[in-house]
Design brief:
The structure holds 2 protein chains of 2 kinds.
Chain A: E1 4-15, E2 19-30, E3 34-39, H1 45-52, E4 60-65, E5 68-69, H2 72-76, H3 78-87, E6 88-91, H4 95-98, H5 104-114, H6 119-132, H7 148-160, E7 166-170, H8 178-193, E8 197-202, H9 205-211, E9 214-218, E10 224-228, H10 230-235, H11 237-242, E11 247-253, E12 256-262
Parallel strand pairs in A: 3-8, 3-9, 6-7, 7-8
Antiparallel strand pairs in A: 1-2, 1-4, 4-5, 9-10, 11-12
Helix pairs in contact in A: 5-6, 5-7
Chain B: H1 6-28, H2 39-55, H3 59-75, H4 80-88, H5 91-99, E1 112-118, E2 121-126, H6 127-153, H7 156-165, H8 170-201, H9 207-238, H10 255-277
Antiparallel strand pairs in B: 1-2
Classes of the chains: A alpha/beta, B mainly alpha.
């Protein structure tokens, strides 16, 4: 039987108690899985990731991580909190909120140092992630001096340095150029192959097939309205269009102007 | 038409100042005498030299320390025109203005050197007043120069680490670090917002309209920074922050560092002995 890392049952959450962000979400994430969460803006994807990372807790329903119910009291326990933070890492959507240290190097080692990893191991992890993500030349630079793509890579590196078992990613490729997007997908695939569980919230449908075995679609009702393998989800154009995930796009095919549903898939233009 | 581009000028001035700071960070990355010193030793040595300046009553000693300061700047690959421009502006000039009234015998009685007449008012410059003003001005100039030298040759994060080692509270050090980190982000937001306003409203705005736009900008920036503050805290929590930040202590002092510190300590003790014990 597969080892279940996360289990949400009818999880509900509202901001300030009056702006609903999640309405009855049921979700299971197994060890080593690749899960993608897709949906239009404001459907609750980022809120779900914050809940999986125990930054917020459900108003109603429950969330279990590694077989234990997550609540504020549990996370106030220093030992549990440290173990949980070592096992789960979240890459935020906006890298500027994640990179708060004076230099790239300090941002990468921030997590391991707070989680009391030994100094010698911290140095090894720094070398490993900075080499793998080609960040060695940036280590002494301040995050504000970096491009958006570099910031995203550093944000991912700062979480990978923790060596988490679960990697939660909020829009990891949003606004990036094709090469940086490719680099980040390759990093994620490599992490998953080495056993890391991936949960990715994204709008980029063209990356979903590579980074997910299961796709959960969030609807306007702020809950999961459909779950299926990526090829099944991506082939249902009508469903995707009705949930704002693709759009009618007019462009030129050889000599003829054509209007049809479009999901910005690179293959389409060949 | 009246030129109301005060907002643009202020913004560009602030941005240019901050970019200067980034440029200064490049000096800290150069190879030079002070850049190679352990930051803890460097802070301690510069602090001793500043104390020398404060304790000394003889302008010759202060001038000697200024020469040492300039020599250190040259040995640290800092261009002298850049260094003098940074150190002579603002604070020393401001100090000079403060010191000017004290040279007159009305405030500092003593031996008259020269007499001025402004209308019916007769003003005389006293030797004691002039000497006091010169000491005050030179102390400010040399202290500012030493501090600028320290900040130019040390990366700001290393300075923050040293503050922590010298037992400055963690909250203070971390807040300073974050201010430095995010001031660039917010300056970028202000610049973008101003460009967006300019693209819709054009260059020339009335003063009242300009003031309103600045007020909106401040309010929006406040809201953004408040929201960001919560997100940053979440990002810290997510990576294991639990109230006390742990840092990696990688600082190592070598033989040259000890010699440099011993030299500063010797100068300090010599000036103390010469000023307070010899006479």
């Amino acid at each position: 039987m597969a080892n279940i890392f996360f289990e949400l049952k009818q999880a509900c959450y509202s901001y300030l108690g009056k702006f609903p962000a999640l309405r009855g979400v049921d979700l299971t994430v197994e060890q080593g899985a690749k899960v993608a969460v897709i949906g239009a803006n404001g459907t609750g994807k980022s809120t779900l990731l914050a809940m999986l990372d125990a930054l917020i807790f459900p108003d109603r329903g429950s969330v279990k991580a590694f077989g234990r119910n997550l609540d504020e009291k549990m996370l106030n326990d220093a030992d549990f909190s440290r173990v949980f933070r070592r096992r789960v890492g979240l890459v935020f959507q906006n890298p500027d909120t994640q990179l708060f240290c004076p230099t790239v190097k300090e941002d990468i080692i921030f997590g391991p140092l707070q989680l009391r990893v030994r100094s010698s191991d911290v140095a090894k992890r720094l070398e490993k992630v900075s080499t793998e993500l080609k960040l060695t030349a940036l280590l002494d630079r301040s995050p504000y001096q970096l491009s958006i793509g570099e910031k995203k890579k550093v944000a991912i590196a700062s979480v990978l340095a923790i060596q988490p078992e679960v990697l939660l990613l909020d829009e990891p490729t949003a606004g990036l150029d094709p090469q940086t997007t490719r680099d980040i997908i390759d990093i994620l695939i490599a992490e998953n192959r080495s056993g890391t569980t991936l949960v990715t919230a994204t709008h980029d449908l063209h990356i979903v097939e590579e980074i997910a075995d299961t796709v959960h679609i969030f609807g306007e009702e702020k809950n999961i309205i459909h779950s299926a393998p990526p090829e099944e989800v991506l082939s249902d154009q009508q469903f995707l269009q009705s949930h704002n995930l693709i759009h009618i796009h007019r462009h030129r095919h050889k000599d003829a102007g054509v209007s049809h549903a479009h999901q910005h898939d690179v293959k389409h233009h060949r | 038409m009246k030129d109301n581009r005060f907002i643009e000028r202020s913004l560009m001035g602030a941005v240019s100042f901050l970019k200067d700071s980034v440029f200064a960070d490049e000096y800290a990355g150069k190879k030079g005498f002070l850049q190679a010193r352990d930051p803890r030793v460097k802070v301690a040595a510069i602090l001793l030299l500043v104390l020398c300046v404060l304790f000394s009553r003889e302008i010759a000693f202060i001038a000697a320390i200024y020469l040492i300061c300039l020599l250190l700047a040259v040995c640290s690959s800092i261009r002298l025109p850049f260094f003098l421009g940074r150190t002579w502006l603002f604070i020393p000039v401001f100090a000079l203005f403060i010191a000017i009234p004290s040279i007159f015998s009305i405030l500092t009685p003593g031996e008259r050197l020269s007499v001025f007449k402004i209308g019916n008012l007769s003003l005389s410059v006293s030797r004691q007043g002039l000497a006091g003003a010169a000491i005050f001005f030179s102390r400010v100039l040399v202290s500012v120069s030493l501090c600028v030298l320290l900040s130019l040759t040390t990366r700001h994060y290393a300075l923050l680490k040293v503050l922590r080692i010298f037992r400055v509270p963690q909250v203070f050090v971390m807040t300073l670090g974050m201010c430095y980190r995010y001031i660039f982000l917010f300056i970028g937001i202000i610049q973008d917002t101003y460009t967006a306003i300019k693209s819709r409203c054009g260059y020339v705005l009335s003063s009242v309209k300009g003031q309103k736009i600045v007020a909106w900008n401040i309010a929006t920036l406040w809201q953004r920074s408040y929201r960001m503050q919560n997100q940053i805290y979440d990002a810290m929590l997510s990576r294991g922050y639990s109230g006390e930040v742990h840092i990696l202590d990688e600082l190592r002092a070598g033989g040259k560092d000890i010699v440099f510190l011993a030299g500063a300590a010797f100068i300090f003790l010599f000036i103390l002995w010469r000023t307070y014990f010899l006479n």
